[in-house]
Design brief:
244 residues
């Protein structure tokens, strides 16, 4: 059995399961809501994440993006269009293909600047969108470099769906969510955090409180780039030992 035939078999098994279908619908709705909410902010001309300091690396990016005029509005329009296409059954795959590069960019940006605001949501939204793309594998499989000569052009899903709950799949999904949560909390040694107080709090009880104060001052007061701030943090000495 070739790769294409194996993927067809796995895809058919998934689409024949009632719970997997419910999960796909749930993802379509939740992803659509996420982009409609954030897209409308841009269409209305409001700055995204208003409460975030303009000196924060992500804050600097969002302020600059807000000042791009109609490009900022364009991003919002694309997000809303992608969301609406996800809701309509006939256009799900088109919506997912538009949605994916946008959420991938948000995910990469969030982790590049260590932004806690979307460190948890963006990777899960990206994986959810990828799931929807794979869910519609039968519609896009011919662009993949596999031999499709023996593959059926139309995969027929049985009218009566399998009601067996896919325990392994949902346990794997839960494990991914937990892993993302843990990484968003403990994945970075230091992070800018959303404000000066929270930034300094991560160094409390360590021997790097002074170095941490330098890092947080560079980020939240001076507005220095993240890499420069981390270099100054690394060069700063540890706190002096307190003699008892």
């Amino acid at each position: 059995m070739g790769i294409s035939a194996r993927l067809d078999k796995i895809h058919l098994q998934a689409k024949s399961n009632k719970w997997m279908n419910y999960f796909a619908i749930f993802l379509r709705v939740i992803l659509a809501y996420g982009f409609i909410a954030s897209g409308m902010v841009k269409i209305l001309g409001e700055r995204f994440a208003v409460g975030l300091s303009a000196n924060h690396p992500m804050g600097q990016y969002l302020v600059a993006l807000h000042h791009t005029g109609f490009y900022y509005t364009f991003i919002g329009v694309v997000q809303v269009i992608a969301a609406l296409l996800l809701v309509i059954p006939r256009t799900v795959i088109l919506g997912a293909l538009i949605y994916f590069p946008v959420i991938l960019n948000i995910f990469m940006l969030s982790y590049a600047v260590r932004f806690e605001g979307s460190a948890f949501t963006s990777p899960l939204m990206m994986l959810a969108c990828l799931y929807l793309i794979l869910w519609n594998y039968d519609k896009i499989k011919y662009i993949l470099p596999f031999d499709h000569s023996n593959a059926p052009h139309i995969i027929t899903v049985p009218k009566t769906l399998n009601k067996t709950f896919p325990i392994k799949f949902f346990l794997g999904t839960a494990a991914i969510i937990v892993a993302v949560i843990l990484f968003s909390i403990f994945g970075w040694q230091i992070a800018p955090r959303n404000n000066l107080r929270d930034c300094n709090s991560q160094f409390a009880g360590t021997n790097r409180t002074k170095a941490g104060a330098i890092f947080c001052d560079c980020i939240h007061k001076q507005g220095l780039p993240l890499n420069n701030s981390m270099e100054l943090y690394d060069k700063a000495p540890n706190d002096a030992m307190v003699k008892k």
